[in-house]
Amino acid sequence: MIIYISENNPDCNSVLNLMDKLEVRYKTKNVTKNELYLQELQNEGIFGTPATFIEDRRYPILGFQKEKLKVALGKEDDRSTINSSRSKCGGYGN
């Protein structure tokens, strides 16, 4: 899994904290520190962070969508379907 992140972005921190809590292995690509990573992301038509690319999914998960990330990783709990419409990330749909 690759997570594109940027500096001073609370949603990026939330995604990374969730991955650590779920004990998921990931690689980060900081677009603030490395322009090549920014170009990679923009070549995919994505202009915001975080963007989480999970190997077996065709499209990345954009923003901090906790339940969507948990489901994609097979880490959802029994209540995930109840709260799935309550995304805290503005600008990105479920």
Automatic annotation (TrEMBL):
- Gene3D superfamilies from the entry? Glutaredoxin (3.40.30.10)
Tell me which InterPro entries the record gives.
Answer: Glutaredoxin (IPR002109), Thioredoxin-like_sf (IPR036249)
- Glutaredoxin domain location is 3-57
Domain of life, per UniProt, equals Bacteria
Pfam families assigned: Glutaredoxin
SUPFAM superfamilies the UniProt entry points to: Thioredoxin-like (SSF52833)
Quote the protein name from its UniProt record.
NrdH-redoxin
